[in-house]
Amino acid sequence: VDIQKDSDLMHIVHVTAEMAPIAKVGGLGDVVTGLARACLTRGHKVDVFLPFYECINKQHIKELALTSTYNSFYDGSWVATNVYRGVVSGIPVVFIEPSNQFFKGQSVYGGSYNELEAYLFFSRACLEWLQVSGTQPDIIHVHEWQTGSLPLLYWDMYHYLSLKKPRIVLTIHNMEHYGECRQEQLSKCGLDGSMYANEEKAVDDRTIGHNPERLSLLKGSIVYSNAIVTVSPTYLKETLCSGWLAGTLIRHRDKYFGILNGIDAAMWNPATDAYLPAKFDANNVEGKKICKLYVQRGLGLASEVHSRNPDTVPLVVCISRLVAQKGLHLITNAIRYVEELGGQMVILGKAPDGRVESEFRGLAELHSKGSSIRILLMYSEELSHMLYAAADIVLVPSIYEPCGLAQMIGMRYGAVPIVRKTGGLADTVFDMDDQSQPELMNGT
Ligand code: ADP
Q1: Among the atoms of ligand 1, which is closest to the Cα of residue 406?
Q2: Domain for residue 63, yes or no?
Q3: CA-based angle 161:167:171, to the nearest 5?
Q4: pLDDT in tens, 198-232
Q5: ipTM score here?
Q6: What is the number of structural domains in the chain?
Q7: Is 274 domain-assigned?
Q8: Which protein residue has the closest C-alpha to ligand 1 atom 4?
């Protein structure tokens, strides 16, 4: 492939709570890895700064080595912090490991430490490390509320110290996560929280007038970043028209852009995917049939060769975090319809909410003896690849969706996406006879 190199080469540092595949919960992790790899390929220097979560499988990190130990400020004292370097999927990663309880536990989120405070610590620790190591990247790219205090810390503190060159880019992957933060919590990372409790800076617009204590890290980072990106043009429009941040975004409209996410075509490639029992591409779809049969047999679904209509049993796959945003009632309705219509369906998802978890567990048990529906309540990267490869249809019935990756991955693996027309789903899925999409008609 002829790789285009950019002429103005930059040093880009991503500061993020997730990175695929070592610390991925949803699309954020995929996008950080894909974007970092794309920029590396174009000739830029890229580093990803990530908390060194205890749950990270170190075997997936190449050349892992302790670089240094330094101190980073938190809550009135300096915390000894290890910094490691390593390489993940070809991307240089800097791991930040404080000596306190932060980031300990068996999963990326939901540990027994205070999550907000851990990310406040992490955001400052990244800037502190850039300062200690004398690194001046061109761009510090922050993602979501977790790293939302970094732009404040940069422009109100570190820029007055030694960091002069960097400019800050914020990507908002999902506006629903606003990073609720009390003034005194923000003060713990060394800023004066009360300075931000006004409408122009970080006060949470939903509570204006009755709770000036409450700040939003997402809003603060919108105000303080040099550029803001969200993950699809339609979501950009939606967030400017409604939602609690619309006023702030309109005020900062000139630096707010909607850029459609893509998927990492190297990581998601059915012609080379190491997780698949058989490879395939658009010109050779035999392998896809084998993948479907493999999944059907593995999950005890009636495989096509044994069913009444050997060629026509469609397999519907839904791979999703099981949260309200994803259209839970539409997913459960789909189970019923697919069963009634004689199709097959596999759901792979994790429900962070206990009630949702037990509802789906009940459904899983109900269908476990049958031969058409399977509900797998777990997170599995490997299974997700196999299911996309096996799928005839990928279902993404989100109520709202900033961009969504599942529909794009599905299409790359030869499945038809069925989606609601919202956000990035509206920007990526088109009917075959949609005249406004001439390139689709040409098969490109
Ligand atoms: P979100 O970021 O809101 O979760 P996206 O569609 O942008 O939604 O990204 C979801 C990503 O997470 C996709 O790569 C999808 O395959 C993956 N994913 C979601 N749930 C699971 C799961 N239970 N096991 C494996 N991968 C999952």
Answers
A1: 6
A2: yes
A3: 125
A4: 999 999 887 766 677 899 999 999 999 999 999 99
A5: 0.99
A6: 2
A7: no
A8: 26
